[in-house]
Design a protein that fits this description.
The complex is a heterotrimer of chains A (about 230), B (about 240) and C (about 230).
Chain A: E1 6-15, E2 18-28, E3 33-37, H1 44-52, E4 59-64, E5 67-68, H2 73-77, E6 80-83, H3 95-105, H4 112-122, H5 137-149, E7 155-159, H6 167-182, E8 186-190, H7 194-200, E9 203-208, E10 211-217, H8 222-227
Parallel strand pairs in A: 3-8, 3-9, 6-7, 7-8
Antiparallel strand pairs in A: 1-2, 1-4, 4-5, 9-10
Helix pairs in contact in A: 4-5
Chain B: H1 11-34, H2 49-76, H3 79-111, H4 120-141, H5 145-173, H6 189-231
Helix pairs in contact in B: 1-6, 2-3, 2-5, 2-6, 3-4, 3-6, 4-5
Chain C: H1 3-21, H2 24-42, H3 48-75, H4 82-88, H5 93-122, H6 129-157, H7 163-190, H8 197-222
Helix pairs in contact in C: 1-5, 2-3, 2-5, 3-5, 3-6, 3-7, 5-6, 5-8, 6-7, 6-8, 7-8
The chains are: A alpha/beta (about 230), B mainly alpha (about 240), C mainly alpha (about 230).
């Protein structure tokens, strides 16, 4: 029985007097895709930032990949791959340089075979010499995906990955999520898109106004989804 | 939410204000009638010292409050400590302005110049004025309140570090063509009594201003919160 | 995650980027030269006052131009999400700070070296290599503290509206003690006097204090990172 990849107990985040997140209990099992859904302002991004170690919890406990956040933040981040709305690398670097940069951030031991394979997989091999700032949004998203997957992270975090992607790009993301899960890795997906979440996620946590409003598992939530988040 | 306080003027405020008024008036009387009219060659312009000295001491006290409150903000994230830091910064800047203005006037009377670049203490005060003006500006310019608190607290610490460095730098590397003569004002006990009474009187006044700024900020913040709720917008991260 | 290795990698990448396409050093040098000329025109060069003012002018130019490099340490074009990327990587916050300090220092020190040569030529300063070495060494060492506190403030002001001006308003008063000491030292060196121990003490204190404070406070700047 493998330990869960994310364990949150009574997790809360306070900004001054405002509580963005409270009493969050959550477990994400290894080798699954878990969705975080909810309306704007529900605390999805806050939770994400807590898991990544960008935010410090105000209360409760959070354990990711077996390490405490934020105490062992560096260990956690060594096992994370994060996809946000923009590439997190210097934009004037070429794509292959950007990947070398990401590899260096992770200690440098990533074989170039892996880089080439990932580029091939997302269809960006032909643009490896182009600077990232010349990439369209869709291509930049694919580049970000490669950067996130390059260190073969135990936990892949996707924050609204489908926004701005064409149908082909969305299909690509979906297939890569499935691949990760098949390989026994874990994916945390934050999205608005109910249909895709339904297809991809084994389980979903719904957030509303900073706390858990509902938990659903695959196959049990179509009706709940329709009445739920906007 | 912070403790509920009556929006009316708190009685302790009035008492405090009355005390300040009485003491400063008493001080003025003492300056006019009690202390020597002039001292040796400095003559009567030295009287400004009785305003300068309390301002300078109070200034340091308030800057120290900024430091303590800033550390507290960074450790607890508490908005209450941020308000204290902010009010102390404003009153500190005000007393620093008084220090610089009276110090400059004193120099001008003694040496017939408006500004004396070689007066070490005046320079220190002026540089600290620039530093804390930056602090007050920072407190007013940043829109995101969480960032503002944290960043202002960080700079509050840096600004205080600057004080000893500036003190020594100005003393060691400032040209001193005018030797310090203002420390030795003579042994007349009335001078010392008036000087320290002045510290008490003016500190009471400045403390009153601090309390006023603090109260005003609190009301403003509560008003902002209410308005924000009414508009349905919330400050801080909206995930 | 080997901190030293990550440090080296980050510094290397910053230098690579600057060598390839960067305009930071070039901008700093050009700005320094322009400012040097403007300040020189402020004083009649034939007077004794002009000679006395030269070290001060040199360091004014260094500080104003250096601030450009410091501003760019976290606010470069195309760099909006890079800090976030670093904070999401396994690299420790302390390593990130020291790497930024080191790379920014390299750029500012490079500018100072070039501008010092220009200064010596433009002001017809006849002196020996040893003196130039001393002046340059003092500049490089003092710049450590300058960049240490600058980088922390730059990380802060990058996300504030009007942050570029605010950076200068906040930074320059903190640099005054260092400025006074290093101008005095430069004057002593150029005139062949013995270098004062107070000058050295102030520069050393400035460096130590602001590297320590800068590093600790940087962690607080990037805690709860919100862009």
């Amino acid at each position: 029985m493998i330990d869960p990849v994310i364990v949150a107990k009574g997790l809360g985040k306070r900004y001054g007097e405002r509580k963005a997140l409270r009493d969050l209990d959550l477990e994400v099992a290894a080798g699954t895709c878990h969705g975080i859904l909810g309306p704007n302002g529900s605390g999805k991004t806050t939770f994400l930032k807590l898991v990544c170690g960008l935010f410090q919890p105000s209360e409760g406990e959070l354990e990711v990949c077996g390490f405490q956040v934020p105490a062992e933040g560096a260990q956690v981040r060594a096992r994370l791959g994060v996809l946000l709305d923009q590439p997190l690398v210097p934009r004037n670097l070429s794509l292959s340089d950007a990947l070398a940069y990401v590899a260096d951030l992770h200690g440098g031991g990533i074989p170039s075979i892996r880089r080439d394979a990932l580029l091939e997989r997302v269809g960006l091999s032909w643009r490896r010499r182009d600077p990232l700032r010349t990439f369209s949004r869709g291509m930049a998203q694919r580049a970000s995906l490669v950067c996130a997957l390059l260190p073969d992270p135990e936990l892949l975090i996707l924050d609204e990955p489908f926004t701005g992607l064409d149908p082909e790009g969305c299909a690509l993301v979906e297939s890569m999520v499935d691949e990760r899960v098949r390989e026994g890795r874990t994916v945390l997906l934050v999205t608005h898109e109910l249909r895709r979440a339904e297809r991809l996620c084994h389980s979903v946590t719904w957030l509303d106004r900073g706390t858990v409003s509902r938990r659903t598992a695959r196959g049990t939530w179509s009706a709940a989804g329709e009445e739920g988040a906007s | 939410m912070s403790e509920v306080r009556s929006p009316r003027v708190h009685p302790s405020f009035l008492i405090h204000a009355a005390a300040a008024l009485v003491m400063v008036s008493a001080l003025n009387y003492m300056i006019a009638n009690y202390v020597p009219f002039s001292i040796r060659k400095i003559e009567q312009s030295y009287l400004i010292f009785y305003y300068h000295f309390p301002a300078a001491l109070s200034c340091l006290v308030f800057f120290t409050i900024v430091l303590v409150a800033s550390i507290a903000v960074l450790r607890t994230g508490s908005p209450a400590w941020d308000r204290r830091a902010r009010a102390a910064g404003e009153v500190g800047l005000l007393t620093c302005s008084v220090t610089v203005a009276t110090g400059s006037t004193w120099a001008s009377a003694a040496w017939n110049t408006w500004w004396d670049w070689s007066d070490a203490r005046l320079m220190s005060a002026a540089i600290m004025w620039l530093t804390y003006a930056g602090y007050v500006l920072l407190q007013n310019q940043v829109e995101d309140s969480l960032k503002r608190r944290r960043f202002a607290a960080i700079f509050g610490i840096l600004a205080y570090i600057n004080i000893p460095l500036v003190h020594y730098a100005v003393e060691w590397f400032g040209k001193s063509s005018h030797p310090e003569t203002f420390d030795d004002l003579g042994s007349d006990p009335s001078i010392s009594q008036t000087r320290w009474f002045g510290v008490l009187a003016f500190f009471t006044l400045y403390l009153l201003l601090y309390r006023w700024r603090l109260a005003r900020q609190d009301s403003k913040e509560r008003l902002d919160t209410v308005l924000a709720r009414v508009r349905g917008i919330e400050e801080g991260d909206s995930a | 995650m080997n901190a030293l290795r990550a440090f080296g990698a980050l510094v290397r990448w910053e230098c690579v980027r600057e060598l390839r396409r960067g305009e930071t050093v070039v901008s700093m040098v050009l700005f320094a030269l322009v400012t040097l000329f403007v300040l020189s025109f402020a004083i009649d060069p034939s007077t004794e006052t002009a000679v006395k003012a030269q070290p001060g002018i040199l360091w004014t130019v260094f500080l104003l131009a250096g601030t450009i490099g410091i501003e760019r340490s976290f606010g470069r074009e195309g760099e909006e999400r890079v800090l976030e990327g670093l904070l999401l990587s396994p690299v420790g916050r302390t390593t990130i700070y020291y790497a930024r300090l080191a790379s920014t220092w390299i750029f500012v020190a490079a500018m100072e070296t070039v501008v010092l040569v220009a200064f010596l030529v433009l002001y017809n300063v006849r002196t020996d290599l040893a003196t130039v070495a001393i002046v340059l060494l003092a500049a490089w060492v003092g710049t450590l503290g300058f960049v240490a506190v600058g980088v922390t403030l730059a990380a802060m002001t990058r996300s504030i509206r009007g942050g570029d001006v605010l950076l200068r308003l906040l930074l320059l008063p903190l640099l005054i003690p260092f400025f006074k000491a290093v101008v005095s030292l430069t004057t002593q060196a150029l005139r062949g006097f013995e270098i004062g121990s107070r000058e050295i003490a102030m520069i050393a204190a400035f460096d130590l204090v602001y590297i320590a404070a800068g590093q600790i406070l940087f962690q607080l700047v990037v805690a709860d990172f919100d862009g």
